[in-house]
Amino acid sequence: MRAGLSGLTAVLASRKLRSLAFGFLVFNLADWGSWIAILVYAYGHGGSSASALVVVVQLVPASLIAPVVGALVDRHGAIRGLVFGYVVQAVSLALVAAGITFAAPVPVVFGASILYAIAFVITRPAQAAALPLLTRTPEELAATNVVNGWMETGGSFAGPALAGLVLSQNGAGAVFWVFAGLSAASVIPLFRHRHATTGADDDTASEVDGANESVLMTVWNGIQAARADQGPLQLAAILTAAWALIGLLDVVNVVLAVSVFHLGDGGPGYLGSLFGLGAFAGGAAAVLLIGRRNLVRPMLVAAVLSGAPLVLLAFHLTTGLAEVTLVFAGAGMAVTEVAGKTLLQRSVPAERLAAIFGLVEGAGLAAEALGAAAVPLLIRFGGVPLAVVGAAVALPVPALCGYRGLRKLERGTPARTSEVTLLRHAPLFAPLGAPALETLASSLRPRLAAAGTRVITQGEHGDAYYLIVTGTLAVSIDGVRVRALGPGDGFGEVALLHDVPRTATVTAIDDVALLVLEREPFIEALTGHRPSGTLIP
Length: 537
Prior knowledge:
- This protein is an alpha+beta fold.
- It has helices at 2-13, 15-44, 47-76, 78-101, 106-134, 138-170, 172-191, 202-211, 215-226, 230-260, 267-285, 296-315, 319-347, 350-394, 396-401, 403-411, 417-424, 434-443, 493-498, 519-527; strands at 445-449, 454-456, 464-470, 473-477, 480-485, 490-491, 505-508, 512-518.
């Protein structure tokens, strides 16, 4: 909570950060809200089959371009990438709005929707890379990430709710006009900062060259990385199943709201907001998993929680029961994801982790599309109740099938409880969630320094951040001692974030035990983006 208040204060005090936060809030509102609107539009022009088709039409091109977006953002500058993404987002949303308003052929509207789906893919990596450019201190950067988290989770239920309200009064076209206007308004304050760049270096060029791989290749690389051990593959399957659940519910909610509960065009937005509310609550509750030794059982309980109430709904299709079950489904999915990602980060070597998460990301987009595509088939063979049952079993079945293997994996996996606890109490890392802390803990390397040893020297190149486990160190600037550091303190972040020489000398007063964090995982933890070149000019 303290970190969140610090982040809010930082955002309110800085015009640049206010612009960034407002833009990200609009992005998340438009992401979730326009998704509901296009599903309702499609359903009105072809039923559940058309809704499923528009999901596939949007996800496939977006997933193909996703692997190269981060590298392109690095090459051309984060702020410029963000401004470009918002401009494309505003223009494409307006094109869809015009197509719906003036009764353009359905394929034309679907085609325009591909463009804004691609625009949404651009925004997340650009947002992550832009944060260090617009913050002044490491503490401000970490705290501002909390506010961004609020924008993201808030958008997951406020976006569908806003879309539902507009849909009920003015239809799908009006939803797109609203979000197009908001997107245009959000880009104006950022336009003056568009020339702030990361100063991409030669490494970035090679990263771009290596990023042009298809989703199928991303999935294959992840499978190759995990094939030596079935445990990570089982975890990846469970995390992928969470995406399938979203795809199923995207279309099921439209069918329930419009054809079963007769809630009107605004009904899908209302039901979608309840699922988002549950996911928000589940994500908040998942903080209790930080540092826990046993994660498989909570993950299994959460997976079952996501589906069991939906089985009841299948046999008793009422609005009241749907409202309750969707909140449970969202909460269960969120906790399952946090527990699954945390266990995955504990069990996979750091050098293979990117490939495994690439597998989850690529397979997840495919699973979401397949989940949506399955709904018309399920309805055809068993009606709406069978489609609801399909959503109910999407996550619990893979979790239950993998239980024994995951328990075996967990028993052989270190929890790194002491490292996670130390990170949780460090001000820089306190705002991070459980999966991010677990990733950091796996990247820490121990180091001992005898009394009198210089750990870092003023003026030298900085390539690591240090956390103190035991012992005391002295900080001196230009030969003058300015303060002492003790257990739980950290040092070395300024040189990493600003890409400048060390600004002080730190010397061990007595024997000390340290944990060392290299530059790349340090930057990636604070920004969610792999660093390249200078981060803060």
